[in-house]
Amino acid sequence: xxxxxxxxxxxxxxxLAALLLAAPLLxxxxxxxxxxxxxxPRVRAVLEAHGAPALPAPPSAESVPLLLVADAAxxxxxxxxxxxxxxxxxxxxxxxxxxxxxxxxxxxxxxxxIRLRDARGAAVPLRAKPLAVWPRGRSIRSALLVFxxxxxxxxxxxxxxxxxxxxxxxxxxxxDRQAPPAPRLTQVPRPFQIPRGAVLDxxxxxxxxxxxxxxLPPSWYxxxxxxxxxxxxxxxxxxxxxxxxxxxxxxxxxxxxxxYGVSCAAPYRTYYDGPHALYQRFLRNGDAARYRRxxxxxxxxxxxxxxxxxxxRLAVHVCERDDWSPAAPLSWQVLRxxxxxxxxxxxxxxxxxxxxxxxxxxxxxxRQNQAALTGGREDVLRVTxxxxxxxxxxxxxxxxxxxxxxxxxxxxxxxxxxxxxxQQGASGAFEHDLTRAxxxxxxxxxxxxxxxxxxxxxxxxxxxxxxxxxPRVREVVARAAGWLAERAITSDGRAFRYLWGCExxxxxxxxxxDLNLLIVPVFGAAYxxxxxxxxxxxxxxxxxxxxxxxxxxxxxxxxxAMRAFxxxxxxRAALPAAASEWPRSAGR
Length: 588
Prior knowledge:
The chain is of the alpha+beta class. 39% of the residues lie in helices and 11% in strands. The chain is globular, with a radius of gyration of 24 Å. The two termini are 28 Å apart.
């Protein structure tokens, strides 16, 4: 949030048995059909086309519907049609379709167990290869499927993806690689590498922007944890105002979201990781239109906001100085523009090699920059919680795609610094000099914390925890949640202080209650780690106010709400069904 805004705040049917069982944080109130009220018609149509409730009951079959939508023009002109009898229908053109299918931890270890059937039940010739593994256990996190389909523009078809048993020994379906076996507990995981022989045929390369999009039900995406915990939008009975507000704001934004460009000072469209926010929107709805929108934003970011080194091993944001090298610390403004979460989303959901390249290059730049960031006259990563957060997010994304021991060591080093940072104070906050961070927001400290930046750091810690299982994260997150609920909240209980501990401004009003949507995921994370329902009770009360005061007038604000509150809904979906529908308690 900029200083001007801070100072001018106003007064106040396909089951997923193994998959669901393998997702410890899911996030499921199973068995009841989703309510149809207040659901956008386009979303309802997509879910009904999949033929499955948003959160299915977990029986035995291991299959999922794959919806194909011919919603775009082909990138190349179709070949001239062959002669046909008068009156015969023109056959639909055949296109290469690619789909990246995510899996929950432990659900799949070998892509040869994947089969695909078309709408008539016939086996579809298929190529498959793993894109990434879960570092713990090394099961497949996402697999790329490439096949051919013939659909006329505007046509849809429901294919069926089966997995969990060896595929038929037939040349019609081929998997390019078996995932490595799970390591012994005392064994250091080896780097995950695609062998040289595992190359797709030239005609079946990834085609994420082809004329046919292939999408899965939002319940599958939620169960997979591919982008953290999620709740399908159709199942959000508790906060219908958020669903309507976030969609309406995107449609009515003036100027339009994609009218914003690159700016190193003024508001810009990717602030708070626009690709990540838009991919979360897609995952919660599962339709082709939202997939296309998120995909376009990820490509735009790489084309306009990243600058690669000549060997393409390093990448930094274009706002960094042209002569930057890892010997100099990256600027604070650049750290928040290195969007690892959005780029890893793009790779795990499309298989685009350019997305992987971006994640690895940004991650390597940050890895090589660690000494300069932390060993100079000041620890740049501890100047504000946000600096540590964005670096940890991108390095976690790097490790997710390349789980080498040296990367794990770097990540653990950041976790060590974060744990020590919190322990140096008694409040539970990550205390720092408020004036050093921004004198215009706090003229005199001495020391305090930022609730909204703390929420970003907790988000980063949860990414790290999902990959490593570091048990220290539980206490760190619970302490941060306690600080927010007991000390950083405003006296009216409706919002959080924009800054806590500032001597010249107590920030004790609810004028920034829109930031509640960014902050309440801390309580969701605390619940996910401790299973103490009180955290959701606190989070829901503040979320009610945040939804009512939601500010989504430009990409920055829209992104911060979408990227964060969707995760909160995912965390709270693990509540028992009755508790998940608690009535609103705030704002009455």
